[in-house]
Each structure stands twice: as C-alpha cells, then as structure tokens.
Design goal:
The protein is mainly α and about 300 residues long. The chain contains 13 helices and two strands; from the N terminus they run H-H-H-H-H-E-E-H-H-H-H-H-H-H-H. It has one domain.
Length: about 300
C-alpha cells in the first residue's frame, strides 16, 4: 500500500503552519474580512499564472457543470463561510487557540465523507484519528488548579473558530466530490502535468470565494476599509505569504491528498497545525512549551504513525 495521500497531507500541515502565522498577523493589521478578499486575489493571480504557463489557459480546462457546481459550493462553504469565521477568530482568540477548534474539521470530514461519499475508516485509521486529536487538544488546553482543564476564551471567538472547523471539514468533502466529477469529465486524464486537477479545482473554489467576499464587502459598506488595507505594506506582504502557503500551495495539496486517501484521515493529519505552531511560538517568545504540549506533540506523531500501519 502506498501512502502518497498521507505524505502530501503532512506537507499540507507544514504549509498551513506558515499560513496561520502570516494570516494571524495580517488579520490584526487590515481586518479579517478585507484579508479574505485580498489573499484570494493574490491566490487567483498565482494560480492563474501557473495554469497559463503550463496549459496556455489561465482558467480551468475541461470541467463540466457538475464539477463547477460542487467545487463552487465547496468554495462557498470552505473559503467564504469557513475562512471568514476562522480569520475573525484570529483577531479574537489568536491563531494557536483558533487552530485548536480546527481539529473539529477531521470529525466533520469523516461524518460528511460517510454521508456524501460513503467513505468508512478502518479500526486502525479511527484509532490514529482519536490519538492525533487527543494529542492536539492536550497541546493547546490549559490546566488550572481551581478550574481544572478549561479554555478561558470569548464566546464569539469560540463560535467563530467552531464555524471555521465546520467549514473546512465539509468543504474538503465537497471538494472531493467535485474533483471526482471533474476527473470523470476529463476522462481520467490529468491534463498537462501531474496534480493539474487539484490546482484547477482550487482555482474554481477561489473564484467562488472572490465573488462571495466581494459582495459581502460591497453590501456591508467596507469598500473604504478594503482600499485602506491595500495601502498597508506590512499587511499586504503577510497576506501574500499567507496566500502562497494557504490557498495556492496548501489548499491545492490538500485536494491532491484527499484524492489519494480517505478524507477523514487526510484532514486529521492536516489538523496537526496547532502542534507544529509550537516551534515558531517557542522561537518567537523565547519560551519552552509546557510539558503537556510536548506530550501532546508526541501523541500527535504517534497518531499520524497509525495511518502508515494500515
């Protein structure tokens, strides 16, 4: 058995770690709503340029109506709803705590994968999922002698981060369904280069996201704030970095990962971002992580290892 999907999912987790750092900084400078549209505009330029260079067309080739429908729906659920919630939570409870609630994405992906795709996880895969999610939670949750294990966070931040996890979990399943239609419309031909399908599918999702966020900004009267955000050089630089590691590289690889493995398993591996964030957090704050965070990291690695023992 090959583990192409699992290996790609690990690369996605690394990419999204950089994304969380860049977007957490940019959200606080230019605002979460403005950031969502700006980073998607960066992403569409980069992806369009890649497709134009490799295929001669800046737009996806060969996608039928069903592929556009499911991938567009995925773009609305994942990018517009999910990322709007996630980026707002960055401004309220910070990236490390927001990413804790993103660990809800794998269970959501497994649930919707079963309902929409008929996917089932074997016992070892389910064990790996439970161990990994336990390790991630242990890495982030804090213990207080009086209150016990708890999160002292604003309710609006918790609800927003929860919405982010729901959007990502459902969005990745809708993406896979859309890519299956896209693959069928291409007759099994990946077209031009390996992985073309995932990059083209991501562009369709991004187009939906751009339309959705543009309408939200216009009808909410945030046009001036959007223009002001474009003038923030540091915010724009962070937005560009996050766009590359997120919507372009990370999301495209995540779609490639789910084509090669179960969506619940791929999402669980990709949910290791909170643990990976311990490394830059330690460097930036010059403070070693707590023992619980270290133990959680080892549990997380052990859980991921289970996926390779199937």
């Amino acid at each position: 058995m090959n583990f192409h999907g699992e290996i790609i999912a690990i690369a996605v987790a690394c990419s999204w770690t950089f994304t969380a750092l860049f977007f957490s900084y940019a959200s606080n400078r230019i605002g979460s709503l403005q950031l969502n549209l700006i980073r998607l505009l960066f992403a569409i330029v980069m992806l369009g340029g890649l497709l134009w260079f490799t295929t001669g067309s800046p737009l996806p080739i060969g996608a039928d109506g069903a592929a556009w429908w499911w991938l567009s729906l995925s773009g609305f659920v994942g990018f517009v709803f999910g990322d709007l919630c996630l980026f707002y939570s960055y401004t309220v409870i910070a990236a490390r705590f927001s990413q804790l609630f993103m660990t809800l994405a794998p269970p959501f992906a497994a649930l919707f994968g079963f309902l929409l795709l008929g996917e089932r996880s074997d016992p070892v895969g389910l064990l790996g999922m439970v161990i990994t999610l336990s390790g991630i939670a242990l890495s982030i949750l804090k213990r207080n002698e009086e209150k016990g294990l708890h999160l002292h966070l604003p309710l609006r931040g918790i609800l927003a981060a929860f919405g982010g996890g729901l959007g990502q979990g459902l969005g990745i399943v809708l993406s896979k369904k859309g890519m299956l239609y896209y693959e069928a419309s291409l007759g099994g031909d990946q077209v031009f280069f390996p992985g073309y399908l995932s990059f083209a599918a991501t562009e369709i999702r991004i187009i939906t996201g751009i339309v959705g966020f543009a309408l939200i900004i216009i009808f909410s009267g945030r046009t001036r704030q959007f223009i002001a955000g474009l003038k923030d050089k540091k915010g724009m630089a962070a937005s560009f970095g996050g766009a590359f590691f997120g919507p372009v590289l990370g999301v495209s690889l995540s779609l490639l990962a789910v084509l090669h493995t179960n969506t619940g398993i791929a999402s669980t591996i990709m949910a290791t971002v909170p643990v990976l964030l311990l490394i830059p957090h330690t460097i930036m704050h010059k403070k070693l992580p707590a023992a619980a965070e270290v133990i959680g990291a080892f549990l997380c690695v052990a859980g991921v290892a289970c996926f390779f023992l199937r």
